[in-house]
Amino acid sequence: MKPGERILGVEGGGTKTAWVLVVAEMPGSEFRVLDRGKLPPSNLRLTTPERLREIFAELPKQIDRAGVFLAGCATEEDRRSLKQVCLEIWPTAEIVTGSDRDSGLAAALDHGDGIVVNAGSGSSVTGRRGDRIERAGGWGHILGDVGGGYFIFIQALRLVLREHDLHHSEMQFTAKILRALLLNNFDELVRWVQTADKMEIATLAPVVFEAATGGDARMMEIVEEGARVLCEYTEAVASRLHLLAPKVALIGGLFHRDSIYTHAFRRRLKKNLPDARVTIAERSPELGAAWLATEADDHAAFHPEASQGEIDNLAAALTEQHNPRSENLEKMSAQQLVEVFVAEEKFVQEALHAAAGELTKAIEVVAESLRNGGRLFYVGAGSSGRIGVLDASEIPPTFGAPHDLVQGVIAGGATALYRSAEGAEDQKSAGALALDERKIKGTDVLIGITASGRTPFVLGALDRAKLLGAKTILLTCNPAVAGIGDSGPLESPIPATDVDLVITLAVGPELLTGSTRLKAGTATKVALNIISTGAMVALGKVRGNLMIDLHATSTKLRERAVRVLAELAQCDYQSARNLLEASDWNLRAALQKL
Question: Are the C-beta atoms of 13 and 120 separated by less than 8 Å?
Answer without folding.
Answer: yes
